[in-house]
Amino acid sequence: MERTESTQDTTAFNMPDWMQIQFADQKREFNKRPTKIGRRSLSRSISQSSTDSYSSAASYTDSSDDETSPRDKQQKNSKGSSDFCVKNIKQAEFGRREIEIAEQEMPALMALRKRAQGEKPLAGAKIVGCTHITAQTAVLIETLGALGAQCRWAACNIYSTLNEVAAALAENGVAVFSWKGESEDDFWWCIDRCVNVEGWQPNMILDDGGDLTHWIYKKYPNMFKKIKGIVEESVTGVHRLYQLSKAGKLCVPAMNVNDSVTKQKFDNLYCCRESILDGLKRTTDMMFGGKQVVVCGYGEVGKGCCAALKAMGSIVYVTEIDPICALQACMDGFRLVKLNEVIRQVDIVITCTGNKNVVTREHLDRMKNGCIVCNMGHSNTEIDVASLRTPELTWERVRSQVDHVIWPDGKRMVLLAEGRLLNLSCSTVPTFVLSITATTQALALIELYNAPEGRYKQDVYLLPKKMDEYVASLHLPTFDAHLTELSDEQAKYLGLNKNGPFKPNYYRY
Ligand SMILES: NC(=O)c1ccc[n+]([C@@H]2O[C@H](COP(=O)([O-])OP(=O)(O)OC[C@H]3O[C@@H](n4cnc5c(N)ncnc54)[C@H](O)[C@@H]3O)[C@@H](O)[C@H]2O)c1
Asked: Residue spans with biased composition (Basic residues) (predicted)?
């Protein structure tokens, strides 16, 4: 991705008192592990592009029998407001329970609500948002409300809205316009209903995928006179912002939360470390111990997959093109091989390169009977699935997201999610991971809304390092972790401020 590097000077950046990292001897508000009653993640990652068409997970209420479009229904919440459009406002109670479950795994947002009490750093903020509407996003939206903002919200994906959660938000007074299974026309109508309101103009944008930003640019460019900033979360949306910036058309500051360090580490390394096993298990019921696995690519995602499989007793091989990552794989105890060398013997092949045609038809032809093939990278071209659509091969759908591809000699290959991202297609993403992203979004909004004139220009910025550190620090109490405080002498020795930032921007973690 091409980008203009922001020139932010994080050393000059000051955070308000309530937003300081708390050390071990300071009062902790959230030092207990949350009780995990009935914990289940109800959504896929909120970090995916708006074009993903995964189906969202379980819903208590099956509303498929009600075919009336929400646009044709007259609904009011219990306070008499009808400034929303959801599938069925009566589902609000179920949605509220889901939001309460999510709150327990989103300690940082709950801490923000407590710490900022009284200060209302978003007082006067009018935020228009376009994200997946899930229990986790609801915790974010209600946190923004608790910090003083007025919010209007639409979905960034036509399939991912949890109807009962949207209903709970509407019942709580949020102007939410979204339901699962919107048409394309509905999608833009919902966005427009959030923006085009008499007597209300947004002054902040929170976007996931760039569609909302694009709509305002196209239809209501004058609104940018009042807008203080855009916070964008997805790779796609960030890419669009950098293009606007390069063309000199970006007219407000924008914060790229996708590339903040904490988000990257959690989404790529830790999330994949957990969800690779979940995705494989749900689709194949397989046992991992003793299985031979080859992981293509030893970047953040590959490292997570390898660590999880090694811990389960699998024999893990790695392929790499980059000698640095290759050496890391060797030092971590994995055999570095070329795919050709192990393709006949492995039980599982996992791609995580972000590249194309990593597993070719030639590799697929040579695999042994029963080999499982899946992809954890962004693109569905890492495995050359198209090459398997030939007359001599038979495809058999054995389960949702599981195909057997059968060769003329009877050999079967097990293909998961047709080569699309395994974890997003076949498993869930832990709420705790989403908590990192949501906290980063909230802090980016607070920062852009409160920044003094001139701190940010019409450019794309990364979250200041100090705030990234703050996001991490807000999640530490969940583990009863005690952070060491620098002594004055040590801080002087290292040339650091005692309250951070603790690393230069180029530090790689
Ligand atoms: N599944 C998920 O939830 C999830 C989460 C985050 C990112 N991703 C996606 O996963 C992919 C990898 O992300 P990352 O953060 O690990 O990226 P990364 O750049 O850190 O790692 C990719 C690695 O693959 C190596 N590589 C490239 N071509 C190769 C080839 N032909 N053979 C072997 N190795 C090769 C690169 O050298 C690199 O080390 C990206 O497409 C990313 O968008 C997926």
From this structure: 33-42
Question: Would the annotation count 87 as a binding residue?
Answer: no
310 labelled binding-site residue: no
Contact 182, 193 (CB under 8 A): no
Question: Between the CA of residue 312 and those of 302, 307, 309, 494, 499, what are the distances in Å?
Answer: 16, 9, 5, 40, 39
CA of 257 to the centre of ligand 1 (A): 19
34, 253, 444 from 260: Cα distances, Å? 26, 16, 10
Antiparallel, parallel or unpaired: β 175-177 and 412-416: unpaired
> What confidence tens digit (pLDDT) does each residue in 297-350 have?
999 999 999 999 999 999 999 999 999 999 999 999 999 999 999 999 999 999
Supply the residue whose CA is at minimum distance from atom 6 of ligand 1. 268
| 404: helix, strand or coil | strand
- The residue to mutate among 295, 301, 427, having the most atoms of ligand 1 within 8 angstroms of its beta carbon, is 301
Give pLDDT tens digits for 344-401: 999 999 999 999 999 999 999 999 999 999 999 988 899 999 999 999 999 999 999 9
How far apart (Å, rounded) are the C-alpha atoms in residues 101 and 207? 24
301 is annotated as contributing to ligand binding: yes
Packing angle of the helix pair 107-115, 135-146 (nearest 10 deg): 10
Measure 376 CA to ligand 1 centroid, in angstroms: 8
Is 195 annotated as a binding-site member? no
Known binding residue 233? Answer is: yes
The finding on whether 433 has its CB within 6 A of some atom of ligand 1 is: no
**Contact, 256 vs 461, CB < 8 A?**
yes
Buried b (16+ CB within 10 A) or exposed e, 55-66: ebeebebebeee
pLDDT tens digits, 180-190? 999 999 999 99
Identify which has the larger pLDDT, 35 or 380. 380
End-to-end Cα separation, the chain, in angstroms:
21
pLDDT at 122 over 70: yes
> Does ligand 1 have an atom closer than 6 angstroms to the CB of 296?
yes
In short, whether 421's Cβ falls inside 6 Å of ligand 1 is yes
Percent of the chain with pLDDT over 90: 82
